[in-house]
Amino acid sequence: MTAVYLILTTPLIGMILLAFRGDRPSAGAVNAWLNLLAFAEALWLAGDVFRHGPRLSPDRLLLIDPFNVYLVVLTTFVGLTTSLFSRAYMEHEREIGRVTSRRLRLYYAMYQGFMLTMYLVLTTNNMGVLWVAMEGATLATVLLVSLYRTPESVEAAWKYFILCGVGIAQALFGTVLLYFAAEQKLGIGGDGLLWTVLHENAAVLDPAILALAFVFLLVGYGTKIGLVPLHNWLPDAHSEGPTPMSAILSGLLLNDALYAVVRCKMLVDGSLGTHMAGTLMMGFGLLSFLVAALLLHRQTDIKRLFSYSSIEHMGLMTFAFGVGSPWATFAALFHMTTHSLTKSAIFVTVGHASQLAGTQRMERIRGLILTQPTIGWGLLIGTVAIAGFPPFGVFASEFLVLVATMRDYPWLTPLLLLGIGLAFAGLFRHLQSMVYGDVPEGQKPIPVKLWPVMLHLVIVLWLGLSIPGFLGDWFNQATQLISGALPQ
Amino acid sequence: MSITDLTLYQQAILLLAGLILLTSFLMLGQTRLLRLIVIFAIQGCLLAAATALAAGVLAYPHLYISAILTLILKGIVIPMLLYRLTHRMGLHRHMDTIDHPTLGMMGGIGLVVFSYYVSLPVVATSTLVTLNAIAVSLSVVLISMLLMINRRQAVAHVVGFMSIENGLFFAAVVSTYGMPMVVELGVAFDVLVAAVVFGVFFFQIRASIDSLNVDRLNTLHETEK
């Protein structure tokens, strides 16, 4: 368990440190080192869980099981590579005078603050603390979205704050109802919000109250996942904030919000014994998937384009978790990983591409392969991967979702195929001219470090070709935990 | 069950629930920003009173801490903060325009009915007091959302936002005798940080659009025009 405490204290110390020293030239490096440390601790933790099984801290506030341990590793990893990217990115932003040293301090401190809330969301055993951490994530990132202080970014941040704040308040109501249901059966005391206690006693909890609670929890955390029609904040926040923020918002925050919903679903399923929670998630997921795939076609801003792609993929995952069969759950877990890795890699390249072109408007980003081949190829390969081309991991996971859907809801597969096709077309109609085409005047190559991107893409490629044994094992255990059976 | 069958504590809680709901409606109809903030402070005090009452009668001492926290945060600090900011930004004489005030009120009533309808499953499992508490708190949450939809001023949005949390706290106190302490403290911390962030935002918004009328924050679109 020591590793968990270390994972939580590292970003806390980092946040305090960088709040005072975040404007030094070395701050970017410090930020990266802190994340490297967290990553090492996560690996240690993973090894520990791999050998000894699920762990509960003595005060029962922290829980590590196969479901969250792989998300912790993923979160630390994406946090690490994004911090490497953000170092170069923020230096460039400072050189061109878009951020002052005060805002740089805010940026680095909040980067660590955000990582802290993400680790807390994943490792806590208390549904209330989970809510607190999720709201904390909003608070940590909301000032970053308005970092550039342009009218658009202030508007985006305000929208993000209000919509996510109000949305997630619904989740708190759901949590109160959960506690209410638990207290009736388990007696008054502090245990009623502990996930382990709730899960053990799910069968005796009042189904009517739990069903009501789940609706609120789904709407609340669903706002954070970016499910249609609560997705309005997401493209704005992603497009107006600094690009490293988009990478970790898309790669981590959405995943962790979905993680919260799935935990709630496990409780409700245990109590209701019906598929009500799953059906709701399927409906919301499918709607998000299709609407986002359609809206991809109408974007002109490169970061908005990829944030709609995030909504689309989150919709697919929500749908797959909603289907709920072992195969679908396995596919959803797998898709969470591949999407997270690919999408954060894409946002890193997108960040470089927009710095290179000096704009985020796609009509003015042209000929990337000619100006700076690494960025061009990075964007091309990343988009190919996210659109679900073989042999990348996203293809494998999307394929698994399709197979799982075909088993249980064959009549929904055409809709999924339609969505995948639409999204594919939407991404490629924009990509073609950005990557190829004539080079506009005045583009100068910028210093970039693309090896984190390449690393992500190589891992995604690897996952597409074969799932390593230990990862498959984790996925299997997590699947068994969530759906109660192993994929056959 | 008639109301006289209830214990004095339960009757008092019902009275407080009614008053909290009343403040929600007062906020919905109030056009002057300063008065809006004052009503919000009253709501915070009522909430603190309900918490203290529960703590005293039911003998849950940890609820006293929660009551004091609520009183300080929701009854004093946050309203003061908003009051001062409103003065500093020269909005104290400002009248917020409300489109269709009557419709807004009727919408509020509709939301209360809806809340009671939604809370019906709870009836089967619990007492009259819990039912009222859950229905009233849900109403407060929804009415505050309606308030936020109905207003133009950023300050009114913040009041609505904080009032949502009031509703949630009321549910937590009355139906479940307060959440575990670690959660209560966490939520209180979040609320406090949110209040500070809101303060920062007022200045950012004013710097970018030269007013706090958030209707003018309308440059970002779902798709480009």
UniProtKB/TrEMBL annotation, chain A:
InterPro entries from the xrefs?
Answer: ComplexI-like_HydComp, NADH_UbQ_OxRdtase, ND/Mrp_TM, Proton_antipo_N
Segments crossing the lipid bilayer: 6-22, 29-47, 67-85, 106-122, 128-148, 160-182, 202-222, 274-296, 316-334, 369-389, 409-429, 450-471
What's a Gene Ontology MF term here?
NADH dehydrogenase (ubiquinone) activity
Keyword annotations from UniProtKB, A to Z: Cell membrane, Membrane, Oxidoreductase, Transmembrane, Transmembrane helix
NADH-Ubiquinone oxidoreductase (complex I) chain 5 N-terminal domain sequence ranges: 62-98
Membrane topology (UniProt)? Multi-pass membrane protein
Protein location: Cell membrane; Membrane
GO BP: ATP synthesis coupled electron transport
- Tell me where in this chain the NADH:quinone oxidoreductase/Mrp antiporter transmembrane domain is found: 125-416
Q: What GO cellular-component annotations does this UniProt entry give?
A: plasma membrane
Q: What is the protein name stated in its UniProt record?
A: Hydrogenase 4 subunit F
Kindly list the organism's lineage. Bacteria, Pseudomonadati, Pseudomonadota, Gammaproteobacteria, Methylococcales
TrEMBL record, chain B:
Q: Which GO terms describe its cellular component?
A: plasma membrane
Membrane-crossing residues? Answer: 12-29, 36-57, 63-83, 103-123, 129-149, 156-179, 185-203
Recorded GO terms, molecular function? lyase activity
Major location, coarse class?
membrane
Note the superkingdom of the native organism: Bacteria
InterPro entries per UniProt? HyfE-like
Topology versus the membrane: Multi-pass membrane protein
Q: Which UniProt keywords apply?
A: Cell membrane, Lyase, Membrane, Transmembrane, Transmembrane helix
Name it.
Formate hydrogenlyase
Taxonomic lineage of the native organism:
Bacteria, Pseudomonadati, Pseudomonadota, Gammaproteobacteria, Methylococcales
